[in-house]
Design a protein that fits this description.
CATH superfamily: CheA-289, Domain 4
Strand content: over 45%
Number of helices: 4
Shape: globular
CATH topology: OB fold (Dihydrolipoamide Acetyltransferase, E2P)
Structural class: mainly beta
Radius of gyration: 15 Å
Distance between the termini: 40 Å
Number of domains: 1
């Protein structure tokens, strides 16, 4: 049975993961530059190795209580690819690279909830943990891609 490799991370005490094939790198959180008219969940943009990268605060995007300033200093940025462009996802902590068998993953339709269904591709069971698998193509909307 095929397996997928994911990068897992914490966000407000829950474990999430994204397909490693969508991940470029992980960075420390750095100060951002705000642009007028950005969506509420955008932290701003950063210059990372000569590239301008928009940063999405996943806590804001998912309507979770935002970071306080001391917590934000510990946060990490996962740099992902979407349509050939890099975008950063601000998360609490990056955990690990893990392999998941397809049999460990339930499709989002089997979860029985429409909460956040636009962003979720499935739920993985790993031991006694549940890992929420995210669809980064749906998290990063066109309004971000136009920045």
């Amino acid at each position: 049975m095929p397996e997928i490799r994911v990068v897992s991370f914490n966000l407000a005490g829950e474990e999430y993961a994204i397909d490693i094939m969508k991940v470029d790198s992980v960075s420390e959180n750095v100060p951002t530059t705000k642009l007028p008219g950005m969506p509420f969940y955008m932290e701003g943009i950063i210059n990372l190795r000569g590239e301008v990268i928009p940063i999405i605060n996943l806590r804001k995007k998912f309507n979770i209580e935002d970071y306080d300033d001391s917590w934000k200093e510990k946060a990490k940025i996962i740099i992902i690819y979407r349509d050939g462009r890099k975008v950063g996802l601000l998360v609490d902590e990056v955990k690990e690279v893990a392999s998941l068998d397809q049999e460990q993953i339930d499709d989002k339709e089997n979860v029985g909830s429409n909460i956040g269904e636009d962003f979720i591709s499935g739920i993985a069971r790993k031991g006694d943990k549940m890992i929420i698998l995210l669809d980064v193509d749906k998290i990063v909307g066109e309004e971000v891609m136009s920045i």
